[in-house]
Amino acid sequence: MRWTWLYQLGTPTWFYQKTRIWLPYMYFTSLVLLVVGTVWGLGFAPVDSKQGNSYRILYVHAPVAHIAEVAYVLMAIMGAAGLIWKTKLSFMAMKASAPLGAVFTFIALVSGSIWGKPTWGTWWEWDARITSMLILLFLFLGVYTLQAAYQNKDAGNKAAAILSLVGVVNIIIIKKSVEWWNTLHQPASITKGAIDISMLAPLLINILGMYILYLSLLTAWTQVEVLRQERKKQWVQDLVAGDKG
What is the DSSP string of 70-135? Predict the structure, then answer.
């Protein structure tokens, strides 16, 4: 009885019905924040004294790299919730999160390479931060592939959840890599107050906007997964019939 409320909140029906209402507002909020932060950062933030205008890709790279790490941690939490409480929605969200996290990681790698060429003189370097981010991309793809590889859905969910939990070690390596090893990648700047407020403000706006965008996309993709897996349930058939009517 203690966890009855959790099972109620974790039902696909409740999730789909509630998030249908929130989703348009989430998309709109993320769009406004990202437009404001990007225009401010690219057009009005001052030129960096060392990197010149090339640093401005920071307003894309830093938010997507941050979300890539957050997406993995959330995916692992969803996997753990599915293993512990056997909630179907947790595994659905984990499956939706994997390709989405892979996209954010890929954008982070590409934008980092574009930034690295004028800053470090190279598109790619096998240093600890960059390599561990590449491993993160493979982990996202691995979780998604493993979940879909099993004919037995429960077995696939469990295997993918275990892999996602093991991969959390890589998140720690990503965060600590610039401290544990001598890398090209610069150390953390936001938490150490190394960025002037005129540059920091649009960056924080973009990070917030990217958070909401990620949650919006995760919600939408999970809704699709809910409808796919629950398509034979009466509530989905009633929903489809109502939309057609």
Answer: HHHHHHHHHHHHHHHH--HHHHHHHHHHHHHHHHHHHHHHHHHHHHHHHHHS-S----HHHHHHHH
Distance (Å) of CA 44 to CA 53, 100, 110, 214 = 11, 31, 24, 26
Which candidate, 209, 238, 231, places its Cα nearest to that of 40?
209
pTM above 0.85, yes or no: yes
Q: Are 92 and 226 in contact (CB under 8 A)?
A: yes
Look at 80-89, 106-115, 145-154, 229-238 and tell me which has the smallest mean pLDDT: 229-238
Contact 135, 108 (CB under 8 A): no
Check: CB of residue 58 under 8 Å from CB of residue 203.
yes
- The residue behind tokens 């039902």 is 11
Q: What is the pLDDT of residues 215-226, one digit of tens each?
A: 999 999 999 999
Q: Where are the alpha helices (DSSP H) in 121-233?
A: 128-149, 153-166, 168-180, 197-229
